[in-house]
Amino acid sequence: MKGYQYLDENGTFSLKDPELTGYLYFPLANEKGVMASVTPSLGGDNKMGQNTFLLAPVSSEELHDKKGTRNFWVNIKEKGLWSAAGASAWQEAGLFSKEKDKTLLMAGMMWHTVKRTSKEYGIEAEITSFVPLADTLEVMLVTLRAPFEDITITPTAAIPLYGRSADNIRDHRHVTSLLHRMETVKEGILLNPTLTFDERGHRKNEVVYGVAGSAEAAPHMEGEAPELPAGFYPVIEDFIGEGGSLINPRALLEEKEPVKAGFHKDGYETLGGIAYETCTLKKGEEKTYIVVIGYGKSKEDFLSQAKPYLSKAYSEKALAEAKKSWLEKLNIKYHTASKNFDAWMQWVDFQPILRRIYGCSFLPHHDYGKGGRGWRDLWQDCLALLIMNPEGVREMLWSNYAGVRADGSNATIIGTEQGEFIADRNNITRVWMDHGVWPFLTTRLYIMQTGDTGLLFQENTYFKDPQAVRGEEKDLLWKAEDGNSLRTEEQAEYKGTVLEHVLIQLLTAFYDVGEHNHMRLRGADWNDALDMAKERGESVAFSALYGQNLVQLGEMLRHLKEEGMEKVSLLEELFILLRNEEELYEDGKAKAELLHSYCDKVRHTVSGRKKEISLSELAENLIKKGNWIKEHIRKTEWISDSEGYSWYNSYYDNNGRRVEGDNPKGVRMMLTGQVFTIMSGIAEKEQVKDITAAADKYLYAKELGGYKLNTDFHELKTDLGRMFGFAYGSKENGAVFAHMAVMYGNALYQRNFIKEGYKVINSLYSHLSDFEKSRIYPGIPEYIGDNGRGLYHYLTGSASWLLLTVLTEMFGVKGDYGALLLEPKLLKEQFDEEGKAEVSFEFGGRSFAVTYINREGKEFGEYHIGAAALDKEPLGNEAEKFVLSREAIQKLDSNSVHGIRVDLI
Predict the structure, then answer these.
(1) What CATH number should be reported for the domain whose range is 26-329?
(2) Residue 437 scores a pLDDT above 70
């Protein structure tokens, strides 16, 4: 494979000459709030939030600019100035007389190393960057070697400190530098702005930013104190000099003396400039320099955090602990015929962890957010957490339901604390019609994995603000001092069960229909760029998924009935939504009127009274509604074009027109409607075959990694969404959008179209793992552009869905009310030379390693489960599925890894 090479099964990889590829960046973070990115030339940024950037914020187009890097200069006697980061004017321009530096990048989970060797300068540098687990810091370990001959060196770290809000990058950039107060101490440089100017107003600053440095030669005597800096360059203006720059610094070129500890300067841009003592390295010798950057609540707090890391031994121990900790969070391992796929999946599995830390902001392509996650992200990320780290998920799921309003809409922004919600950003009232789908989908996975149906009956509050009637009206009686909890007429805080929350979300959506009796598109659905059809737009695609939710919830209630439960209590007003007449379902106008009457009743307060209903009656009601949706779509939205291809229409636009099918400007097809009609079972078997044929004809682009989100509409379609203003082949307008592509694959697997589903996943993998094409590090991005480049890497919900698809569909590892179900859907080519495929995972609080053995090399559809064994003890013979009961799982040792061998015959 060209490009990067995997070094182990954990996904550690190496890449030669990474600086020859543009737009590369890598995440470095911890769970204490530090969020950074680093490029091959050590650019990128570091922040703890929108208003707390240590290094200046960067967007993707600023990655080319090597001036703001974490630079490390080496003045080599008789040879001149050389940047260990490759960020000098002469290195960037390739002005060496002999040859460019040789560079090699190596990276693993949350650590990044770049080796750089210059024959011309006679030096080698290895810089490892990481964020420690326990402190609000980032550490650079810079090891300089003399590989060819003796050299005399004077090193200097030069890291520009920004120290303010991202808003100030162009809003009062100079004015906010006047707030800077810098000070040098024996360990480094401190920046303590007096005030912060940002969206919160003028406030006293409460964050101290700092850089500290030290040096240690090898060998180093135990207990020997590290060598502290010789001096400092704390002012950018003085460091670059007149006519200079950060990649051509006059202070170093002219060998100006650095200042000493005790220096103060106010009102200037600050540099983390650490000057080290001149020393001579004999041939083969090396010396390590340590640079620590970070945050403190005070000068003393920053220094108390930073000082221990000035010891090389301490920093190396912290690096080892960080590596070990992040790998332990990846408790799923795969073994197939492709070792590269197995290693690549480690990065995919890691991405939901990154999204939990960064949200959808704070990496170079994700420059549109200010932190936190949206409602949809919250639930989809839980899909992966349920599988990788199920501990604590129950509490997380329960607390998330506090964001649901009584009208079935929800708060859209998640606060910093679990269960904390904000109505929306910038007071924009907007309802995404798909938001009610995800909570039950995720909760159902949790219940199937654990058997914990009790979650459905745990009570929680409802979110309350002035937004009413699903974002279309206001509650004029609400006041901010009332708080964000729904109250009864007696002003008591009202609580309802999780089941009640789910019912409100699903039932209000059922009645919220447009003129074609599909659910209204409103502000948008999953595709945020379908945002211009609020009045008459309809989402057939997500109506299908709501239908499936209603049926599956009804089936879950029937299961509870079989377990012995008879009745549930629900809010009295909710019974308005439990009307069960076929004539009502067919009358879209009557449904909308009924919904309004319900929303009006819960506009300000609720009665607080509850009524009982039998599980049998409630289950029948939901299943009938869900099946009505499915049949309505089946009857009205199956379309064919003039060439004889057929599929399901996905949307109606703001003029009430069907979006897909033949058009004078070309055939129009969208992938989203196909995904959810397949996944929900609306598409019958023969229709699935037709859909895949149409998708292969109109949407498949092998050279771009697979299935595009839509065909080219050749129109700025302002009656549907802003996506049509994007260049075709980019983002939501016709790109290979990984999220929906993976869900397409998942849907096909669920319906046992295995070869077709595998084609979707393998096309994505094959393209993305080909560095020459995708130009990104391992993992899955948001989308693939029309030039084949992966874009918006790391922070994408597609990773959760891909993890889910590979584990639960390919390897067939599923839950059934707490029982472990194995139903493999692996193709013959996925088994290794010995006919084995393996996966390890956690389930029911126990660790398992499953080995499927396909000795005869049979294809999927030809094999079924034969003999099986648990910890080498036979369990029985021949079945369609392997089942290990919840009771049997609980009897297993929780401290051991339990091996399951399944023979496929």
Answers:
(1) 2.70.98.40
(2) yes
